[in-house]
Amino acid sequence: MIKVKDKSACCGCAACVQICPKQCISLDEDKEGFLYPTVNRNLCIECGKCEAVCIELHSFEVREPLKVFAAQHFDESVRAASSSGGIFTLLAEAVINDGGVVFGARFDSDWSVVHDFTETHEGLQAFRGSKYLQSRIGNTYRQAEKFLKAGRKVLFSGTPCQIAGLKRYLHKDYENLLTVDFVCHGVPSPLVWKKYLEETIARQCEKNTVLLHSNPLISERGSMAGIRKRKIDAISFRNKNLGWKKYSFALTLSEVTTDGEKNTVLLSTIFPENEYMQAFLADFSLRPSCYACPAKGGKSGSDLTIGDFWGIEKIAPEIDDDKGCSLVIVHTDKKVNRLSNNSILSEISLRQDPFKGNPSYYISPYQPVNRAFFFSQFGKNGFCKAWKKTMSTKLQDRILRKIYQLL
Ligand SMILES: Cc1cc2nc3c(=O)[nH]c(=O)nc-3n(C[C@H](O)[C@H](O)[C@H](O)COP(=O)(O)OP(=O)(O)OC[C@H]3O[C@@H](n4cnc5c(N)ncnc54)[C@H](O)[C@@H]3O)c2cc1C
Q1: E strand or H helix at 125
Q2: pLDDT band at residue 69 using 50, 70 and 90 as cut-offs
Q3: What residues flank ligand 1, with Cβ below 6 Å?
Q4: What's the CA gap between 300 and 162, in Å, rounded?
Q5: What is the mean pLDDT of the chain?
Q6: pLDDT tier at 209, thresholds 50, 70, 90
Q7: Which domains are assigned to the chain?
Q8: Which end of the chain has less neighbouring CB within 10 Å, N or C?
Q9: In this structure, are residues 121 and 93 in contact, taking their beta carbons and an 8 Å threshold?
Q10: Facing residues of 117 across strands?
């Protein structure tokens, strides 16, 4: 029976929840906002399946990549909406064209992030773009298994730990399955995201404003006199208006005025100035298991690992137009053909050190000494105050981080 004694030894992939034949494992949110499994002992039959699928209880081999590519989607509008070069969409479109199913992460109606599947090109839109928080995987492993057994092609995309969880859940190789993970910096807390969003909206809007989620603005208008209603229209963690390398966090709000006009407001900050991105990139808001990730460096068992090709301007400057370039790491033989048939790919030799700009491929993030301080402040005062207080203690962390990186 699975028992999480040490939170750093559970990545929250929920393979245990999905494999349980008695469905007696539930996921509960802790104070930091991460989900952990709890077994209902009264229903558990001690079959051991949950332990058999747990990626933290098994070790995986680091794999040397077979090939590395730099890639860009040929459609400029797709590339603009994607975080890097749009390689995810390219792979997903090929699977949809073959009558297949694509699994990925999308925003839910309350702007939390969930895993889901689509069978259409239009459905891919919601998966495009990185959402920098841990997605709820739900029962997507089970859904994917059903499609695979029915002979459908399946592309399953996710974090390295989500892919490792899927592979252990399935327990066998499927020829019709393509697994795609990404170079992963780590996953921030969904609760930190929720609070950040609430506080940002509250800061930007007047006191008499309520935030609507997915409900239509116009039908709501006038139901509460004197109250202004705003709705989030779009969120991008990787807005490329200022370029791929200088990306921004962008939030689009809309409001219906008393005369029925729709006003749209764009809040946008470049990533080094955005507090949420600062806490993410300085490693404070990540899941405890991310600091010793069991699935990096190809250990997840994925067919492909994708990411931003940071440093492409030095390796292949002719490709770099600052509109986004994907790094594609090929781990398995069977999928190479699909990629090499495509003309927009340039193969990069391993001798050119394609991972130099992206150490997150191999290395887990450094756990800041003040992480616990940040989360204790977060519990008391919410995100923005907690982050301000933590920032004032960051010098010590910077020095320790430098030592960690040197080591
Ligand atoms: C939490 C997180 C950390 C990352 N860290 C790095 C990093 O350190 N270095 C790096 O090079 N790249 C990192 N990436 C990946 C990078 O941001 C791009 O997603 C990747 O380069 C693919 O870009 P694309 O242009 O091909 O497609 P895009 O359209 O941008 O990619 C979308 C893909 O990402 C998946 N996705 C989006 N959000 C999530 C989520 N929350 N959980 C699971 N899957 C999700 C979608 O399902 C889809 O498969 C990270 C992504 C996430 C979500």
Answers
A1: helix 121-127
A2: very high
A3: 82-89, 104-105, 113, 127-133, 135, 157-159, 182-185, 187, 306-308, 326, 358, 360
A4: 8
A5: 89
A6: very low
A7: 67-189+286-361 (3.40.640)
A8: C
A9: yes
A10: 103
